[in-house]
Amino acid sequence: MQFHAKSMCQLALGIASSLVCAAMPVWAGAVEAGASLKWSTDPSTQCRFVAPESLGDGPKYWTGFCSGVTSVATGVGTIVARTANRAGPAFYGELRAGVPIIGVVSDEAGYRAGLFDGKEIGASKEAERVDIDDSFKVAERAAKQVSAYYAQQKNTASAKHYQSVAKQFASQLERD
């Protein structure tokens, strides 16, 4: 799903060149590394993005901002994999020009947090504690934003679900 607001579209048009410039290092790094990014398209909105491999090959849905100019996901939000009518693994975090930067993947095994390496979130065994903490902070912000979106849509059940997810992410930061 996309966030639909006339002011967001106007803002996107006004800062489109800034977004393109900000995304250049991401694209340049992917091209230089020879990374073959696997793009997905949200079947309900046609918004495009790269999903972490752990989300599988099935349909994936983006809830967050999608550029009306490029149809590419940008900013904080969630990518949820769906099988039949059930939600599967999900990514909560930040995308730039459709490519994950930092966040958390939530699946049956628990959480995987960190930076995106071109294929997966948090795959590096040498991840810095600060990267993991920052990942949970970004994921919490994404879950809260998605909760607010669903509340605005009068979808109380989904709004409560994502608020609960945000609290779970916040609790990951409450340790020694």
Describe the model.
Helix content is 38%, strand content 26%. It is α+β, with helices and mostly antiparallel strands and 176 residues long. The chain is globular, with a radius of gyration of 16 Å. The longest helix has 27 residues, at 6-32. The chain has helices at residues 6-32, 129-152, 156-171, and strands at residues 39-41, 48-50, 60-63, 75-83, 86-96, 99-107, 110-115. The protein contains three helices and seven strands. It has one domain (6-171). The strands form two sheets. The chain has a five-stranded antiparallel β-sheet with strand order 3-4-5-6-7. The N and C termini lie far apart (37 Å).
Topology diagram in text:
Blueprint: H1 6-32, E1 39-41, E2 48-50, E3 60-63, E4 75-83, E5 86-96, E6 99-107, E7 110-115, H2 129-152, H3 156-171
Antiparallel strand pairs: 1-2, 3-4, 4-5, 5-6, 6-7
In total, how many beta strands?
7
How far apart are the termini? Answer: 37 Å
- How much of the sequence lies in strands comes to 25-35%
In total, the number of domains comes to 1
In the predicted model, the low-confidence regions spanning at least 5 consecutive residues are: 1-34
Mean pLDDT: 81
- Estimated structural class: alpha+beta
What is the helix content? 25-40%
Order of helices and strands: HEEEEEEEHH
Name some characteristics of this structure.
single chain; 176 residues; alpha+beta; 5-stranded antiparallel sheet; two-stranded antiparallel sheet; 3 helices; 38% helix; disordered N terminus
Task: Provide a short characterization of the protein structure.
With 176 residues, the chain is of the alpha+beta class. The chain is built from three helices and seven strands; from the N terminus they run αβββββββαα. A hairpin with a 2-residue loop joins strand 6 (99-107) and strand 7.
